[in-house]
Amino acid sequence: MKDKKPESDLFDRLTTSSLNKYLGKLMEGLTAKFFRTYNASTTLQDQLNKLTEEKSNLHDKLLTYNRANRAVAILCNHQRSIPKTFNKTMENLSERIKSKKKEVKTCKKELKTLKKEKGIPEQKITVKKTKLKRLKDQLHGLKNIITDKEENKQIALGTSKLNYLDPRISVAWLLSCHNLGVVNTMFLLRKFIIKPIEKNFNGQLT
Fold first, then answer.
1. How far is CA 128 from CA 101, 111, 112, 121, in A?
2. Burial of 192 per CB tally in 10 Å (0-12, 13-18, 19+)
3. Which of 30, 119, 120, 155 has the fewest Cβ atoms within 10 Å of its own Cβ atom?
4. Alpha-helical regions (H) of 52-121
5. What whole-number distance in Å separates Cα of residue 125 and Cα of residue 35?
6. CB neighbours (10 Å) of residue 171?
7. CA distances from 94 to 27, 132, 146 (A)
8. Full-model pTM
9. Which phi-psi region, left, alpha or beta, contains residue 181 (left: φ > 0; alpha: ψ -120 to 50)?
10. Are 131 and 110 in contact (CB under 8 A)?
11. Could you count the other beta carbons within 10 Å of the beta carbon of residue 6?
């Protein structure tokens, strides 16, 4: 601390290359990135254990994973500027939510009317109930999307997801979500792991 000013860096003589050179002497191939990867992966695992609700649906699982990933991004200081299109995107989502709420309200009225009428086949009522459930699920998904975008407007999730997270943690977590089914599990697997890798690989080819 001798001769240092309050605004001076604490380890001003330390560089990434010199640190990695020293670590390489302790163990072949060891670099500073190993420690960041370990901390990031441990944080992801801890957050998934803490936030995951066993019976939550696809939309909630997606929000849970992104929140766990956000904790990692904050740990690694992966920030970004708010996208220029953010406000417009949020406005569009708000309009979609309003529209979906109207659809739900209309479907509820139609179902209520059907139940009051005599001689209506049970199958017709079942179809209407199924439609109402689907609309509610879509509305819930839209609300989660707008929450997710608001929470991550200044956080870059992609960097940690691609470079610092052990993909085995994500795969194991997805396989533990038994209530999702094969189709939804594969959808999330592609979104969380396969798609980011493809994007990075294709970017390197261009």
1. 16, 6, 10, 11
2. buried
3. 119
4. 58-75, 86-116
5. 58
6. 14
7. 53, 20, 8
8. 0.80
9. left
10. no
11. 4
Phi-psi region of 5 (alpha: psi -120 to 50; beta: other; left: phi over 0): beta
Give the whole-angstrom CA distance, residue 185 versus residue 68. Answer: 17
User: Which entry of 22, 38, 65, 164 is annotated as an active-site residue?
Assistant: 164
Q: For residue 12, which amino acid is it?
A: D
DSSP state of 155: B
Give the Cα separation of 143 and 96 in Å (integer): 10
Please measure the distance between the N-terminal and C-terminal CA atoms of the chain and give it in whole angstroms.
Answer: 47
What pLDDT tens digit does each residue of the chain (206 aa) get? 566 777 777 777 778 888 888 889 888 888 888 888 899 999 999 999 999 998 899 999 999 999 999 999 999 999 999 999 999 999 999 999 999 999 999 999 999 999 888 888 899 999 999 999 999 999 999 999 999 999 999 999 888 888 888 889 999 999 898 888 888 888 888 888 787 777 665 554 45
Q: Are 58 and 180 in contact (CB under 8 A)?
A: yes
Structure token pair of residue 182: 């094969």
Hey, what are 36's tokens? 């960041």
Closest of 90, 72, 70, 201 to residue 146, by C-alpha = 90
Those residues with Cβ within 8 angstroms of residue 42's Cβ, 6 or more apart along the chain or in another chain: none
Residue 149 and residue 89 in contact, taking contact as beta carbons nearer than 8 Å: yes
